[in-house]
C-alpha cells in the first residue's frame, strides 16, 4: 500500500508498505541481476549501503540457476540473504536487448539463450510463473520495450499487445498466489507504460492500464536512445495520468541528474545499472561531480574518494590506493568503487527525501542539478 505523505510541486514524498518491509520514497533500487551486484557485492553489503530494495532479473535467473531451483531453496530473499523488498524485472527488456535473437507474436516471445543458444519461450503466463517461483515482493508485468525511435504504427500495435499481455499477467498471478505452496502469496504486480516518444500513445496506454487498479505502475522504454529532453517530455505527459495513490516507477534511469529531474516530475522509484557498471571502470559519482579514478593525477592523491561521503570506501581508503588497485586490475578496486557508488545513489535519494520533508526540495534541486552532472 502506498501512502502519499506530502508534495512539493509535482515531487512526491511517500511510503510504500510491502510484505517484506516499508520503502521510503523516492527510492533507488540496487540492481542485482543474477542475485548479486556486479563487483563482488552481496546482500549483506547492501545493508550498510542504505539500500531499501534489491532488483533481480527474471530472464537471467530463469536460465541460471533456474527459478524452480530458487523456489526449492526458499525464494529469492532466502536465496540471496536479502531481508528487504525485492522487485523482479519481467524479462520484457530482453525482448528489446536480445532483438537479434527473438521472435515476437501474440502468445509471447521466443528467445535464443545468450548462454548456449537454446530456444526459450516466454509469454505473460511464463513470466508470472517464473516470478512466482522466485517469490519476489513485486513482479513486473511482461511487456515489449520499444526502441527509440520507432514507427508510429508499430508502436501503437505493440502497446495494444502489451495491454493485452497485462490482463493475462494479472489473471495468471492472481491464480498462482492462491495455489498451495506459493512462495509469496502477497506478491504485488506493477504494470508498465510503453509508447516510445509518442505522447498520445503513452497517455492512451496509461489510461488503459490504470483501469486494472494494480499495485503500482512503471514508465518503461526510456533511456534507450532518445535525448534527455525527450525523456523528460514523456514523463511530464504520463505522470499526471498515473494513479496518485500508487507508486510511480521509472525503469532503467539513470544518472543523478536524471533522477533529480524525474523526482521533480512526480516519479517515486528508480533503478539503473549505472552505479555498478561505471564503478567497475573507475568512474565514481561524488557530490562534486563524476571522478575518473583511472586518471594519472590520482597517483599521489591521499584524499578520500569523496571528502563529503562516509561510505566504507571513503572512510578507509585513498584515491591513490584505489587508482593503484584499478591500474593493477585488482578486484578490490572495482568492489570499493561499486560500494561507493551504491552508497552515493542511496544517499542522494535519502537527501531528496529529507529535502521534501523539510520543504526545501527546490533549493536542493537548484544547488545540485548543475554540479552532479559535471566531470571533474
TrEMBL record:
Q: How does it assemble?
A: Homodimer. Within each dimer, one monomer is responsible for RNA recognition and catalysis, while the other monomer binds to the replacement base PreQ1.
Locate the tRNA-guanine(15) transglycosylase-like domain: which residues? 10-367
Q: Which GO terms describe its molecular function?
A: metal ion binding; tRNA-guanosine(34) queuine transglycosylase activity
Source organism (scientific name)? Hydrogeniiclostridium mannosilyticum
Please describe what this protein does.
Catalyzes the base-exchange of a guanine (G) residue with the queuine precursor 7-aminomethyl-7-deazaguanine (PreQ1) at position 34 (anticodon wobble position) in tRNAs with GU(N) anticodons (tRNA-Asp, -Asn, -His and -Tyr). Catalysis occurs through a double-displacement mechanism. The nucleophile active site attacks the C1' of nucleotide 34 to detach the guanine base from the RNA, forming a covalent enzyme-RNA intermediate. The proton acceptor active site deprotonates the incoming PreQ1, allowing a nucleophilic attack on the C1' of the ribose to form the product.
- What are the binding positions for Zn(2+) in this chain? 309, 311, 314, 340
In terms of domain of life, where is this protein from? Bacteria
Q: Which family does it belong to?
A: Belongs to the queuine tRNA-ribosyltransferase family.
Which cofactors, if any, are listed as required? Answer: Zn(2+)
Database matches in InterPro entries: ArchSynthase1/Queuine_TRR, TGT, TGT-like_sf, tRNA_ribo_trans-like
Q: Does the keyword DNA damage apply?
A: no
The reply to whether Signal figures as a keyword in the UniProt entry is no
Summarize where substrate binds, as residue positions.
89-93, 143, 194, 221
Entry annotation: catalytic residues: 89, 271
Q: In which pathway does it act?
A: tRNA modification; tRNA-queuosine biosynthesis
Residues annotated as region RNA binding?
Answer: 252-258
Q: Name one GO biological process term.
A: tRNA queuosine(34) biosynthetic process
Give one Pfam family, short name only.
TGT
- Lineage per the UniProt record: Bacteria, Bacillati, Bacillota, Clostridia, Eubacteriales
A GO cellular component annotation here is: cytosol
Q: How is the cofactor bound?
A: Binds 1 zinc ion per subunit.
The reaction(s) catalysed by this protein are: 7-aminomethyl-7-carbaguanine + guanosine(34) in tRNA = 7-aminomethyl-7-carbaguanosine(34) in tRNA + guanine
Q: What is this protein called?
A: Queuine tRNA-ribosyltransferase
Which UniProt keywords are given for this protein, alphabetically ordered? Glycosyltransferase, Metal-binding, Queuosine biosynthesis, Transferase, tRNA processing, Zinc
EC annotation from Swiss-Prot or TrEMBL:
2.4.2.29
